[in-house]
Structure formats: C-alpha cells, structure tokens
Amino acid sequence: MHDGGMAAHAAQKVELPVQGMTCASCVGRVERVLKAEPGVAGAEVNLALGQATVEFDPGATGPEAIAEAIRGAGYDVPWVPTVEVAPAAGHEALPEAKPARARAEERATAIAAAEAREDRGLRRDFVVAVLFSLPLLLLGMSHGLFPWTETSAGRWTQLALATPVVLGPGRRFARLAWKALLHRTADMNTLVTMGTTAAYAYSVVALAAPRLFRGEHADHVAPHLYFEAAGAILSFVLLGKVLETRARRHLADAVRGLVALQPKTARRLRGEVEEDVDVDVLAPGDRVRVKPAERLPADGVVEEGGSAVDESMLTGESMPVDKAPGARVYGGTLNQSGVLTVRVTRVGEGTALARIVEAVEEAQGSRAPIARLADVVASWFVPVVLAIATVTLVAWLFVDPTPAGLAVAVERFVAVLVIACPCALGLATPAAVAVGTGRGAELGVLVKGGEALEAASRVDTVLVDKTGTLTEGKPELTDVVVAEGIAESRVLALAAAAERASEHPVARAVVAGAKARGVALEEAKDFRALVGRGVEAKIGGALVRVGSASWLAELGIATAPLEADAVRLAEQGRTPFFVAEQEKLVGLVAVADRPTREAKDTIAELRRMGIEVAMVTGDREEAARAVARDLGITRVLAGVRPEGKVDAVTAERERGRVVAMVGDGINDAPALAGAHVGVAIGTGTDIAVATSDVALLRGGIAGLATALRLARATLHTIRQNLFWAFVYNVVGIPIAAGLLYRWTGWLLSPVVASAAMSLSSVSVLTNSLRLRRFR
Q: Which ranges constitute the DSSP H helices of 547-685?
C-alpha cells in the first residue's frame, strides 16, 4: 500500500463498477492490484455488487489510472467518474462540476449498457454451448445404445461438436485464467479452464492416437472419450453465470428504486410566476409549487397549502402524513391531495434521499467481519484444490497404471477441479449484506455497513437517551392545579399571557396548551424574564408572576397550600410552576416531556428479544424515573453529562456486553461513537446521525427492534450461505476424488460436478434474496 503524499492532498474516494469477477479469488486479485497502485491508500472490492471502492491521493493517481490497473488485471471498468481536485493558488479554477443527478444518470447508463453487453455475451455463449453440447451428451453418454457412436465417424463427430464449445464460449474462462497466471495467482477460471482443457486434450489424443491408451490385449477396444464432459462443464458453468447475473440485478433494486423517486424537473416560483426547471438548478431559499400526484423535488418547509404526503419511501409507513405550513417535507416523497408551496432547504446530495442512497451504497459495498473467514479460505482454496486434483490424478494412476487407468485418473482430476470452484464462497457475505441493507432502507432503517450489521446482530444491551428518543423531545402542558375559589381557565389564562413573550420551550408549551383548550389570552405589558426564577408581566393592570416556589417565597408570596401538589407532580416526572396574581397564589401549571406512543411497545419488544435496556439521561432523577416507570425500564442513570454517557457505554463494554447506544442529540454523539453500535433517531441532529452506525429514518425509536431483528436475520442468512458454499466443496471434493469409491461405489462425473458447482452459486444468491421478504 502506498500512502506517500497523502498530506499534500485530501484523500478522495471513488466507486468503480468492475465486471468479469467470478469468485472470491477474483476479488482478492483486484484488491492486490489496487493496493499496489501508487497513491492508493485503501481498496475494498464487492463481488455481489461488482464494485471497487478505492481511497486515493489525487496528487499521485486518479480514477482513470486506477481503472487501467483493474483492466490490466483482466477485468472491465465500464464507467470512470471525473474527480476534480481543487486548484493550487494562482491557478485558474476548474469549471463547475457536473450536477450530482447528471453524474448518477451517466454512471447508471454506462453500467446498464455494460451489463446488457455482458448479458448478451453470456446468453450467446450459453446458447452456443447448449446447442453443441446436447447432441454431444447424447453421443458421449449413450454407452452403446447407438452403435454408430462407437464408430470412427461417431467419435470424430464428437470432436467436431466439442471444439466450437471449447474454443468459443470456453475462451472467456481461458482468457481470465491466463490473466490470473500472469499475476501469479489462480481462481475459478483457472479451475474451469484446467478441467475442460484436460478433458478435451485427453480426448483429442485418445482419438488421434488410440494405441497410446489401449492395453496389451485390448487392441479392439477404443479408449473412452470425455468430449461431452468438456462441453457439459462449460454449459453448466455458463448457465450458473446467466442465473447469477439475473439474481445480482436484484441486489441493488432498493438503491435503484430510491434513485428513480427523485423527479428530474421542478416548478419554481418567481413571485407568483411558475417556471419549469431542472432540479439541479434549485438552490436553498427557492420556492417551488408541488401539485397532487407529483413528487417533491427537494427537501424543504411548507409555506402555503395543506396536503397528505406519502413518505413510505423514507419511513416505511403506509399511511400518508398531513402537511401544513411549517411542516418539513422531503425530496422524492409523493404529494397526494392538495397543492403545496415549499421553500427549499436542501438540494442535490444534501437531501435526505441522496444521503440515504449514498449510505446504502456504502453499506452494500462494505464487508462484514464474518467475510474475513471467506477471504482467508479463498486465499488458499484454489492452490489446495490444484494440489488435491494433482494428488488424485497420481493416486489413481498408482492404483491402475494401465492406459485405461489413465482415462479414469483424468476423469477424477477433471471432476475435482470442477466441483471445487469457489464462486459461492465469494458471494456468501456480500450478497446477504447487499439485500439486508437494501431491505432496511425500504423499512426506514439505514445500516451503514457490514461491520455495523454484524455488530447489531449480537447486541444484548441497549442504552437509551430519554429526551427526544423515548420522549417527544419537547414539553407539553399536562396539569393545571388551582387555589381555592379560582377557576382553572383563569389560572391558565394568566400563566399563558405572561409566558407569551418568552421564547423558552416551557413557555411555548404553556401557551400552546392554553390555546388548545380554547382559553383567550389577554395582552401582557412590562414583560420581564428572570433567569432561573421565572417571568412576570402586567395582565389587565395586575402584576402576574409564573415561576419557582423559592422565587415567590422571596417575594413574600406563600406557596404552602399547593406545595403538596407540586411534590406529587414532580414525582411523576413533571415540572411545576407556581402562578401568582399581585401578591396572591392562584394556582400552578405543570409541563412534561411525554413518552412517545411507540416507546413502550419497543422496550417490551427488546425485552422479548432477550436484550437488556437501560436509560441514560442528563435529566433530573425524578423526571427520568417517572418516564422509566411508564415504559417498564428498571435501570436508570440520571443527571449524566455527555462524558458520563461515554463512561456508561465503556462500563457495559467492560462487562463483556455488546452495546447499542440510542440517541438523537449532539450530546449523544460521543456515546454513539463509543458503542459497538450507535443508533441515531433520524429526526435528530445531523452530527448524531453522522456519528451513528444505524439511523432510524422514521424519526422515532419504533425502528430499533426492526433494525436489530434485520441484523440477526442477515447474519443468519450469511451463516447459511457460508454453509452451502462450503458443503458443496467439503462433500463434493472427496466424492469427485473417489475417496469413498471403495466403500460406497460413489463417483462424481465431471458433468454432475459442473452442475453442482453452478447450483451452489445460485442457491447462495437465492437464499440472500429471501431477505427481501423480511417484515
């Protein structure tokens, strides 16, 4: 790996589509080539997605040079992005970069065209192989049913049928095997090429010089030919590739579907004049009009109008969300009923949709740690298989050194090479990660990579912030308690009128609560706020104070008649404020941050999953324990500062627990980063979402159980995939080598071996795609 000069330029990252990879060995070869390229700081290659993610120093190399290195390894790169480097001082600035959507469309078009070419080539080769191999199988495996097949003409006909298959469709494997040899490595193409070449070459020699393979007393017996094995091997491998290509297309359906939701044009307003413009020219502050059945062009805030908006692509919720002036809306969501005028706040790559697409693509391109098992196995698998095949050939020749024994030895050699192809091994992990993260995005759960997915599957302890995570995140008016002889509406009217000039969240809660109950508010004069004490203002000529008991006591106003009520409310997690008119106590109001509707169900679900839940909050003890009681949480750490939350995470990790930290605020970010899995509420601060490993896009904690269950399901699928990838080889190789023949009579023909090898890849992909049905 080369990293010299990284300080001179900020490292950049590029994602390149790579075509032609067939197995885990191909992935290893591409990664080795990339890491040997000067200026490349790191590289990850994903077989399932056909993609290389490369971090590089733009001062030392660039995307085109990186692509050439991949092509030099024998693989195709159908599209290379233009990465622009900031100019040095005194140099002319670079032209404006191509809009993000235009780049995405260009990339998608190039990849689609390359996929179409590859698909046409595979189908053509498969059709050619089948057309020639079917009659070849009929002739080669008739076993005397058709006497003509044993004649010289019949045997030469087999050569005529096999040659177009080996020299036509077989060339794609031979070309890549040669490239691998030049790089002093071996892969699936090496095994296929060696197997078909051995079967074909042996048969050509046996046909042209049959005496070399006849025994001393069997001059009249023609040696067996294996032309049908060569043709059938290539036919089955190509069938597997066709099915595999079709299945791979489904892996990125979630991302492609999300990208397609972004409209290409918007109806921008200049005053009240509408003009249709490309969405790429929109800027924050622009006003756009969105009519029914149209998708929102960008993120923004509703200024005028009301409608129901389908946000299922972001949240997974089927019910539309009512939008009124002041409500946030997101690009790609569907406006259903009314006309909306929206002020744009985020465009292009800054929108929620673009960030989701980017995160899902990064997640699908990353590796889970469990993939290292496959990497380690793949690194020695092909050389070991070649060794086993060679030992098998020599052993069978030792058992039977006659010319007839040579034919059997070659057949065993070919069968071992073919059954051992490690295609499924390389697909086992990335296929499941790709489908799992894509399905998560559809359900409103954004998982940022395979490592996060694997860690989430093992979580046994969840630490949850309170405010904004378990609760609504903003106070609401909950109680009004009155002194003797005072009406409730009077107390609320006085408190709300005095608080109306304040910007404090508690003040807004009191005012909103009064309005919701239909209380008319009088005009306040001479408003004054006293930090840590309360507020005062003149209402209808009378001086009204709203604040703490200690402040009113300093003013000589007795609060004793209602102090028992204040204590009771505080024990319930509510915050009481006394209300006095002139020098007389008239009542008190209380506010609280209520638990969300879904929090209790989520906590109960986590407990059913065997996960321990604890609350970690900076709020006071009484309020925290009151919310915890409502939600069924028994462990509470209250009054905890941000660094204390990190200490709580560290303590759990030292206990040997696998910890998920759930939060939504800037103060939660350090703890999110320190946990095995940081989970951010999607409506929280950008820094919390950026620091997290998992983002719950529905904006509430309801998606937490879904995220952890999806992670468990994905890891279960990966383990199943690895089992099926190994079982074909572990069971098939001994049978193909003939180790069980003495006791069972079992042998595996090269034809059956090639079918089983192709089936292993298809079974792994099909098993991964079952995750699309996860609920």
A: 549-554, 560-571, 599-608, 621-631, 642-654, 669-674
What strand order describes the sheet that includes 635-637? Answer: 445-447, 694-696, 677-681, 659-663, 461-464, 612-616, 635-637
Using left for φ > 0, alpha for ψ between -120 and 50, and beta otherwise, residue 93 falls in beta
Q: What is the reported pLDDT for 630? A: 86
Is pLDDT above 80 for 525?
Answer: yes
Question: C-alpha angle with apex 506: 343 to 672, nearest 5 degrees?
Answer: 70
Residue 263: pLDDT band with limits 50, 70, 90: confident
Dihedral angle over CA of 290, 294, 296, 301, nearest 10: 40
Would you call 561 helix, strand, or coil by DSSP?
helix
pLDDT top residue among 72 and 639: 72
Pull the structure tokens for residue 350: 């800054």
Handedness of CA 616, 619, 622, 624 (dihedral sign): negative
Contact indicator for 20, 56 with CB cutoff of 8 Å: no
Query: In terms of C-beta distances under 8 Å and separation of at least 24 residues, what long-range contacts does 238-241 make, across chains too?
Result: 238/122, 238/125, 238/126, 238/129, 238/169, 239/126, 239/758, 240/423, 240/757, 240/758, 240/759, 240/761, 240/762, 241/22, 241/122, 241/126, 241/758
Amino acid at 303: E
Q: Which residues contact 266 (CB under 8 A, 6 or more apart)?
A: 276, 277, 278, 279, 282, 288, 297, 298
Which residues pair with residue 577 across a beta bridge?
589
pLDDT tens across 444-487, in order? 888 877 778 888 999 999 999 887 778 876 788 889 999 988 89
Residue 223 DSSP SS3: coil
* Active-site position among 125, 286, 465, 619: 465
Enter the tokens of residue 240: 């597997």
In the prediction, which pLDDT does 711 show? 93
Q: How far apart are CA 15 and CA 160, in angstroms?
A: 45
**Catalytic residue status for 465:** yes
pLDDT tens track for 53-68:
899 998 889 999 999 9
Give the CA distances from residue 696 to residues 298, 442, 469, 692, 702, in Å, rounded to whole numbers and listed in that order: 20, 11, 11, 10, 8
